[in-house]
Amino acid sequence: MELQKYSALIFDCDGTLTDSMPIHYIAWRDTLLRYSIEFPEQKFYAMAGMPSDKVIMTLAAEQNVEVDVEKAMDEKENEFIANLMHLRPLEFCVDIARKYHGQMPLAVASGGTLPIVTQQLEHLGIIELFDAIVTAEHTQRHKPEPDVFLEAANRLNVPPEECLVFEDADLGVQAAISAKMDYFDVREIAAK
Predict the structure, then answer these.
(1) Residues involved in catalysis
(2) Phi, psi dihedral angles at 138 (to 5 degrees)
(3) 126 CB contacts (<8 Å, ≥6 apart)?
(4) What DSSP string runs through 70-124?
(5) What is the pLDDT of residues 65-81, one digit of tens each?
(6) Can you say how many angstroms the Cα of residue 12 is from the centroid of all Cα atoms in its chain?
């Protein structure tokens, strides 16, 4: 992979830098079941990259259930944090971040919340690799909209077309395309 032609690298967090998706799914499933909301695993992966409040509102509306979105979000995040000790890095992307740290600007651009993304990166000892961290709180629109990637490029002071995005979800790939950025779908590595 020729990365030298890019001026900056932007990484999604969950499922790209961290093997957090199974931990997130269990936290989601267990939390939402307390509200009588079912969240099949296939649907969870299809909604990857969507902010938590939108996930809850979408599922609650589809299943005709009333829920305190903020309370459910807090419960889900607490459930995730309680299982953070099981979190492992996804070495392919972490190795790239380590290799290019100090050689070009690096950012994390995630649909997750800043506290959860930060805790994951700190747990894995890689937070210092990144010059910018952009999360759901930093933009009005979220993946598949390009805003999180555009904000990351802006914070790195690099034109969007000179950035390469590492992503693991369809919504994130769509966001990278909309941002006019090249992307690498890390699911291709998992498939090999």
Answers:
(1) 12
(2) -90, -5
(3) 17, 89, 94, 97, 98
(4) HHHHHHHHHHHHHTGGG--B-HHHHHHHHHHTTTS-EEEE-SS-HHHHHHHHHHT
(5) 999 999 999 999 999 99
(6) 5
